[in-house]
Amino acid sequence: MNSNAEYWLAVTVYLVGSVLALWLWHKVVRPLPRPIAGMSWMILFALLLSPTVTEGANGQIAPAIIGLIFGVISKSRELILSSLLPMLLVLGLGFLIGFLIQRLRSMRPDIN
């Protein structure tokens, strides 16, 4: 099997698993208040789907959480920071988008 095909198969399986995990998390946090449920969903989204690029001759895109785990295990400060920054960026953008959506919902007239 071609290594490029194996890579895309692995990416597809990871994305489908992440979407499934996010959908299940949405079902779990449904009873919680809306802001807490949304923030916890966004944190899980940032952990699962923040991308980073692996180092080396065959560097490809990978989840940032994997780089963060390797950085913690190897005690590599540079790897920890380079993996944590994309997650924090995704988290910050997600919180900003969530804030704007909540703002728009509160400004919309309630039709009953």
Automatic annotation (TrEMBL):
<keyword id="KW-0812">Transmembrane</keyword>
<protein>
    <submittedName>
        <fullName>Uncharacterized protein</fullName>
    </submittedName>
</protein>
<keyword id="KW-0472">Membrane</keyword>
<feature type="transmembrane region" description="Helical">
    <location>
        <begin position="56"/>
        <end position="73"/>
    </location>
</feature>
<feature type="transmembrane region" description="Helical">
    <location>
        <begin position="7"/>
        <end position="26"/>
    </location>
</feature>
<feature type="transmembrane region" description="Helical">
    <location>
        <begin position="79"/>
        <end position="101"/>
    </location>
</feature>
<keyword id="KW-1133">Transmembrane helix</keyword>
